Amino acid sequence: MKFGILFRPQDPPDAANIVERWQEILAAAKVAEQAGFDGLFVPEHHMMPDGYPPSPWAALGALAAITERVEIGTTIHLLPFEHPIHVAEHAAMVDVISGGRLRLGCGLGNFPTEFELYGIDPATQVSRFEECIEVVQRAWAGEELDFHGRHFDIKGRITPRPVGAELWLGAMSEPGVRRAARFGCPWPTDPLHNIDVMKHWAEVYRSAGEEYGTSQKLGVNLLRDGWVADSLADVERTWWPHVRADHWFYFKEVPRWVADREPFLQDVTEEDDFKFDRHRIDRLIVGSPDDCIASIRAFQEAIDPDYLILTFRMAAGPDHQRELECIRRFGSEVIPAFRTQDQPLLSRTDP
């Protein structure tokens, strides 16, 4: 199993220090590669006042330039908002510059205001998304396109082609995971739902892979929020207030929770209803190194993921130095428990 980090380049409330925040992201990226992580990822959303990145391409180029070994990618690039040929070309250039390390995780979007920004009807998001997927896959394969769909008319080919890029498809529903299987793409999960929901969707995804004959191309890339410290009490004091606010935002704004598999969420009506002792169970990777290892093994047993991609620092914290300490400690005290003899960690020195 590989280990990655999903960075959250935000500076609430108004992005006043977003330049400094990005310098911290790049510094953390170097530390993460030295600490033994396998991948570094960035997100995308639009019109967020805290500076949430609206485009991944510059960030991916920067990550490619300052790293040598780790995979770089997105979880999630909002594919319907960009012309698929632009996506195919931008991604190919990042992949070439990085030497084949791009992992482009794509999704179809959640927020109506983002569709309004681009003048796109949300009712067409699924068909537009699927056309974009097809175009990117065919363009990356080097095909001379003569494509005429509901949303795009495309004639020609891209150059250069990617040399090692992978297309991942995010999903937060049964139709979504079946789509990922149908297109033969690895599936990056959401970080929100509990282990029971993840297990159910993973079963649907793998079953669909057998149905479509794509099983050999599939893989579950599990996203989680996490923090390693001396104890659960330390995590609750220094980290939990930040993640609670983040989870409440998505619970309130993205009504895709699976209520029958998330029974305690039925009583949640405000942020304070998220209680650490309950919310962390079967959902977060937190606590001492032994606590984190035990939680990861539980997810392995239930889901058998190919990748575990963690977000440590949330929009509002903890601070940069604590983030670096967490990355180093996770690399030295958690990741080695999951390395086989043929997957040695790199030797590490502080920058």
UniProtKB/TrEMBL annotation:
A UniProt-annotated Pfam family: Bac_luciferase
Gene3D superfamilies xref list: Luciferase-like domain (3.20.20.30)
The Luciferase-like domain, residue ranges: 1-302
TM annotation in the entry: none
Keywords, ordered alphabetically: Monooxygenase, Oxidoreductase
Domain of life, source organism: Bacteria
Entries under PANTHER family matching the protein: BLR5498 PROTEIN, LUCIFERASE-LIKE MONOOXYGENASE
Name of protein: LLM class flavin-dependent oxidoreductase
Lineage, uppermost ranks: Bacteria, Bacillati, Actinomycetota, Actinomycetes, Streptosporangiales
